[in-house]
From TrEMBL:
Domain DUF306: 27-131
Gene3D superfamilies referenced in this protein's UniProt entry, alphabetically: 2.40.128.270
Annotated region described as Disordered, given as residue ranges: 1-24
Source taxon at top rank: Bacteria
Low complexity bias spans: 10-24
Annotated protein name in UniProt: DUF306 domain-containing protein
Organism annotation: Hymenobacter ginsengisoli
Amino acid sequence: MLAGAACQRVTEGSSGTSVSTSITPDAPLRETRWVLRQVGGQPIAGVATANQEPYLFISAAGTAEGLGGCNRFRGALKPATEDAELQFAPLQSTRMACPELVTEQAFAQALESTHAYRITGKLLLLYADAQRTGTPLAQLEAVPLP
């Protein structure tokens, strides 16, 4: 199970002492709806409705599912051997044509190339290398489940 660290905002009080004003825990990798915000370093253009937003959901059981913008996908995670490792088994997808196809293909490629992740607050960053360096393949934001 993933143990999340917490982000803490610290301000200096009038007496010069540090005062913690809030703690925002990192979102968990599993059982969170992750909405795609960037892929390949490019922001995702707004879609017509929230029902069409590209997203990823990883269940507690280790299955992955989501929406690329028009087509739904589903598959499993490969077993992780190290912390922060994340790899998807081949994901199966429906094959409908739609205006969001370019974004959908870039999202699918990012998921296929993912080997590691980092969660910072409400952001999930997917990386091609285990060292989690360089520009993330994709950036997703945790949003409440509908």
